[in-house]
Amino acid sequence: MARREDYLTPETLAKADEIDKYLATLPEINYPTAPTTTTEQTDPSINVAIDDPLPAPKFIELSHIMELDHDKSTMPNEIIKGILYKGSKMIISGSSKAGKTLSLLHLGLAVANGKTWLGHPTHRAGSKVIYLDFELKPRMAAKRIAEIVKSNDGYKPDNKNFLYCGLRGQSRTLEELVHHIQDLDNYPPDLVIVDPFYKLSTGADENDAGAMSEVVNRMEQFSERLDCSFVYAHHFSKGNKADTDHIDRASGSGVFARDPDAILTLTPHEEEDHLVLEATLRDFPAPPAQVVEFSWPNFIHKPEMEPKLRKAGQTKAKKERHDKLSNALVELLKTNSIMGLKNLNNKLEEKTGEEIHPDTIRNIIKKDENIIVQKRGKGLENLYIYKQN
Known about the structure:
Elements: H1 10-24, H2 44-51, H3 62-70, E1 78-80, E2 84-85, E3 89-94, H4 100-113, E4 129-133, H5 138-150, E5 162-166, H6 174-182, E6 191-195, H7 209-226, E7 229-235, H8 255-258, E8 262-268, E9 274-281, E10 290-295, E11 298-301, H9 314-335, E12 338-339, H10 341-352, H11 358-367, E13 371-374, E14 383-386
Helix pairs in contact: 2-6, 4-5, 6-7, 9-10, 9-11
């Protein structure tokens, strides 16, 4: 077998020297370098909307702070009286299908018209609202909004303070949204509503405190940049929440209990179709818990009802009681029509031996299409009739 050394003869070495000398006479070759690429191309104007360099921090003397406090004209408007200042953040959380979207639509329309929302007055002059909807198809949202407006005399159909934006199926960042809102002509918003939060978090793990902090910090920059309040909806974690502090009912990281200036929850009441509204606030004393009835497409404030949360296992017991009272009511009305809700309530209590809230009877009537309520005009009591189809 030949070895490498066998080829290193004086003749081959001389030829190698000649080749080296020839190559040394050639000019140096400058090879082109590959162009640098970035994985993400961003519109610089979008970054400017959020990431402008911050101004130098201001250090204020105590005397000036006291003067500032005396000047009430420097206070921001209360978007929701006793709940939310302009420029603050609010979260509304609730269980699945608890009516969060509908409550936010009501909020937007109430604020735009300067009307009361869930028992709380809004700024009387009305405020400019932008509703960013990542959940509903625009046509279905239009149907809901129209139903709300038609069923509330104070909501004007030609109000210019409410702008809706359907974003279902779109992945949008906060930076993009700020950019588009700033491009609106003569429409600086007072309130921006995002429904729901998780569609804006762009796939971030809601249990990751770091990731959620990043998202809500961007929201805060959003709010400060546009000088508007920022409200978003979020969902409860699974299970009954009666024994959980209301600020800890939201699913995911504890950021949702720490970051917002106002935390509102809608939790099932022990009475069917009713919810308990609770609030924890940074800038105001917390109001007492209240009850609202969900009666499509509205929420009716029920200040006279006790805010009793539905306990675990109560759903089945409530259904059994509802069925029992419904059957007893039908038996009463099959015999004779009854005039007046109070009279009907008394007869049902006498028949069942139970104390019954009038709202319970109203709910039974709403769910039984065979029970007819005949309205007899102003000042006259309604007539309740059972009509078998």
